[in-house]
């Protein structure tokens, strides 16, 4: 029994340390990222995201602050997402279902469900999605992140990965689309992922710029 427990713990630990894909949000390696979205000339939003996968469980923590150029800053949300992962028989598709709990706009708690997926396609293409549905006191919102990636040599890649927000209580929506590039650097102890993606919000009618840095520990 003792030997079985030790082997199980070693498998989990080694699985966490093994880096597979710097653009895979459900990679078993611990990942920490800081991302910034610039909204025209009015404000920007900075988001901190930490991910890790334990065996068949994906855990994601995030926190977001809005920086208003002509007013006080606003705390937007913090949340914890947990998803149970499944893998297709050909091991090219991984997806998961789970729960999410959030504290939104310093006003209320919300909770709901989530769906995550990563699909590896031919010719180094990859599709990634994250969807959440949450409700609470004066809160009913959907977040949808459809992403498509194309890997190239030397760590370069093309990307299009908008974050769409639908707040049905306040009638505030964000529906951006865009395309950008990224570069992955191998720093021996980690992989460092830099991204740059111009976007345009077709609902609100203004341009956006999405930039970020993500560190994935080996």
Integer tally of domains: 1
Give the CA-CA distance, first to last residue: 30 Å
How many β-strand stretches? 15
In the CATH hierarchy, what is the class?
Mainly Beta
Widest sheet: strand ordering: 1-2-3-4-5-6-7-8-9-13-14-15
- The protein's oligomeric status is single chain
What is the ordering of alpha helices and beta strands?
HEEEEEEEEEEEEEEE
CATH fourth-tier homologous superfamily? monomeric porin ompg
CATH topology: Porin
Work out the helix count. 1
| Radius of gyration, in angstroms, nearest whole number | 18 Å
CATH architecture: Beta Barrel
Mean pLDDT: 89
List descriptors.
mainly beta, 1 helix, about 220 residues, 12-stranded antiparallel barrel, Porin, 15 strands
Question: Can you offer a commentary on this structure?
Answer:
By secondary structure, the protein is mainly beta. It has a single domain, classed as Beta Barrel (Porin). It contains 1 helix and 15 strands; from the N terminus they run H-E-E-E-E-E-E-E-E-E-E-E-E-E-E-E. It has a 12-stranded antiparallel β-barrel with strand order 1-2-3-4-5-6-7-8-9-13-14-15. A hairpin with a 4-residue loop joins strand 14 and strand 15 (206-217). The longest helix has 16 residues, at 2-17. The radius of gyration is 18 Å and the shape is globular. Residues 1-20 have low confidence and may be disordered. It comes from Flavivirga eckloniae. Residues 1-19 form the signal peptide. Keywords: Signal. This is DUF5020 domain-containing protein.
